[in-house]
């Protein structure tokens, strides 16, 4: 299951230059992700991605070009991703046997991952567009200008919740059209030391960044590979930074490992891509887990973060949580284990201790809102508990490990006790672990209980069918 597909069902209506075919508010800002294998029987298969363009049709406006994005993928060996580093240069032998692991990666000529060896739109590649850009059915064959005749493909998208149907059309162009008329997201990867291929420190050492992701709904900042330290929910209004850090620890107050130690040890970028529909930031390496990977997908009003542990056994467990800044004071925090809500104010709260994880969280205040869904998946038994700490005078300042000395509404999931080895280089007894978080920015709920209704979108995927679009009367 590709968890980042889940974000297609939970967003509120957003700006569009025409009326969407869908009226269900959960679908209006949905991305639709298809793979090249869906297009094998069409004219688009194995063509150069830059020649593929997208259109919607409405009776009122006719043809309108809409943003689409094709992300090429290829199977790449981990040793290549690390720039074929000389094993004699690795401290603690971290790069030993990297060649044993192959990963399906998003291609990037700006990293050692490199280009897709198949330059055409093939089975592994992904084609992405926003469901809000879907239009009406073009009843007659009247293609837009500057496309190659008989190259059209009709993508039919059906909503099982409302039984509404929308249409998107894909064509091969004649080189007179831009691939996309606009961009929904802008990702600027900026390495302070210079360029990635020439100046990135693959082994021990920090790699400071000033990298930004910006959309109309939010802005985020990275200062190193694992260090996400900026979140601005109203970037057009010069809103304050609501983030202290996106944190990862073994356990509360256990500072043996965290996002700074992850960034200061071996690591490499797999992909840094900014496209018209989404941005992708994916990287390897955290301390003694050189194959541990985190991948971020940034859409206009949402983001998905997937963490795959590939490391030796962890005897202390694992935590993944957000810690907010003092600018978050006054925001109300809700979750499935505390649906009544509590105000983030820096004053400790007595919340119930329950033996089940956080599935959803909702934060709302004058500063904006966040709607988040979390999942952890493994092929071994786990004990996952919720974590929450709101305290501007913690007993020990050291317990914060990174960021500021305070804890404002710090919340997320904690896996207790030992985790088995997840390193794929281990021939025997290796297991799999994945943590996923979907975040929606500035989604206002009428009531917290509305989250239960939104859950139906997670269980009812959009239905897709693909057929040729051409003049059936011609010989």
Describe the protein in words.
With 475 residues, the protein is mainly β. It has helices at 78-81, 196-199, 259-264, 450-459, and strands at residues 31-35, 52-58, 62-66, 68-71, 73-77, 102-106, 126-130, 152-158, 165-172, 186-188, 211-214, 219-222, 228-232, 243-249, 268-274, 279-286, 289-298, 302-309, 318-324, 332-335, 338-343, 360-365, 368-378, 384-391, 407-415, 433-441, 463-469. It folds into two domains: 3-71 and 118-182 and 459-469, no CATH class; 184-444, Beta-galactosidase, Chain A, domain 5. Strands 15-16-17-18-26-23-22-20-21 form a nine-stranded antiparallel beta sheet. The longest helix has 10 residues, at 450-459. It is globular. It starts with 30 loop residues before the first strand and ends in a 6-residue tail after the last strand. Residues 1-19 have low confidence and may be disordered.
Short description:
Helix content is 5%, strand content 37%.
Enumerate how many helices there are, as a single number: 4
What structural class do you assign from the helix and strand content?
mainly beta
Number of domains: 2
Which strand order spans the largest sheet, edge to edge or round the barrel?
A: 15-16-17-18-26-23-22-20-21
CATH class designation of the largest domain: Mainly Beta
Calculate the mean pLDDT score and round it: 89
Q: Write down the overall geometry.
A: globular
Question: What is the total tally of β strands?
Answer: 27
Beta percentage is: 35-45%
- The share of residues in helices is under 10%
Low-confidence stretches: 1-19
* End-to-end gap: 42 Å
The largest sheet, given as strand count, sense and whether it forms a barrel, is: 9 strands, antiparallel
- What is Rg? 23 Å
User: What name does the CATH topology of the largest domain carry?
Assistant: Beta-galactosidase, Chain A, domain 5
CATH architecture of the largest domain: Distorted Sandwich
